[in-house]
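Figure 6 in text form: structure in, sequence out.
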């Protein structure tokens, strides 16, 4: 039963695996660029999952064609709108994180978060 469910919904399983990869990358890496990549993988997994949940097989995009106005003929446009909005926000957040990373690198000449923390503690004394 569980294997059959997994095989029928492998797309959702892929999204969850991607999210796990991104989350573990975010937690375990010490390099700031690798952490940003992990966060982007998590974002992508979330958007994939939302897009999969919004898709209904056999339905079309919500654009009235040939006078068909039946709600059952179209997919819900809200998940795709959320995905597009999320992509715009994540690009902005990524740009901000990369700019802050550049500033940290210029000041401390390293991208290792532990090394930056150590140097910050030394500066505070």
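Output sequence:
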């Amino acid at each position: 039963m569980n294997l059959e469910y997994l095989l029928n919904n492998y797309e959702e399983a892929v999204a969850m695996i991607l999210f796990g990869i991104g989350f573990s990358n975010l937690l375990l890496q010490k390099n700031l660029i690798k952490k940003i990549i992990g966060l982007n993988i998590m974002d992508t997994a979330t958007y994939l999952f939302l897009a999969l949940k919004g898709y209904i097989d056999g339905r079309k995009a919500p654009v009235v064609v040939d006078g068909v106005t039946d709600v059952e003929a179209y997919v819900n446009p809200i998940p795709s709108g959320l995905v597009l909005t999320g992509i715009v926000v994540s690009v902005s957040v990524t740009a901000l994180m990369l700019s802050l990373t550049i500033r940290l690198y210029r000041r401390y000449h390293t991208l290792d978060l532990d090394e930056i923390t150590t140097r910050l503690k030394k500066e505070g004394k």
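Caption detail: The chain has one domain: 2-124.
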